[in-house]
Specification:
Strand 6 and strand 7 form a beta hairpin. The chain starts with a helix and ends with a strand. The chain is mainly β and about 140 residues long. A nine-stranded antiparallel beta sheet has the order 4-3-2-1-9-8-7-6-5. The protein has a single domain, classed as Quinohemoprotein amine dehydrogenase alpha subunit, domain 2 (Lipocalin, Beta Barrel). Helices cover about 15% and strands about 50% of the residues. Keywords: Signal.
């Protein structure tokens, strides 16, 4: 399963974020003194809007993208915009359960997942494929 997950991650990264390779530095795991404060549950409405986001640790290096979430006919939908190529990828599914937004999209025939959790009124944290850190700040 780990092999498949890694293959999917690499395929996604190559498909969506083809570009320059950047050097990476290792970031130590947060200690209790530096850990983020406790979060509050998010409703689906929390995620509606545009988010400047960063996906960290993918093979091409840390990559900036924009997430857009909308509520259409009472249903949450969304997409991801690659600013380097001005390419939009629509999310196949968008759900919010227990304050966590989970979304999937297809890249080169593989399903890629994102899981995002509210940090405060204008920020979220999460992961892509449970391997790469994702952060985001609301664009006002």
């Amino acid at each position: 399963m780990k092999k498949l997950s890694m293959i999917l991650s690499v395929a996604f990264a190559m498909f969506v974020f083809a570009g320059n390779v950047n050097a990476q530095t290792s970031t130590p795991a947060p200690t209790p003194a530096t850990a983020a404060p406790a979060t509050t549950h998010a409703t689906p409405d929390f995620f509606v809007g545009k988010w400047k986001s960063m996906i960290k640790g993918i093979p091409q290096g840390d990559t900036e993208t924009t997430f857009v979430f909308e509520k259409i006919d009472g249903k949450l939908t969304g997409s991801m915009i690659d600013p380097k190529e001005n390419k939009t990828t629509k999310f196949d599914t968008v759900t919010v359960k227990d304050g966590v937004l989970t979304t999937t999209f297809t890249a080169q025939g593989f399903e890629v997942s994102l899981s995002l959790k509210k940090q405060d009124d204008d920020n979220f944290k999460g992961s892509m494929m449970e391997q790469f850190d994702v952060t985001g700040s609301r664009i006002k």
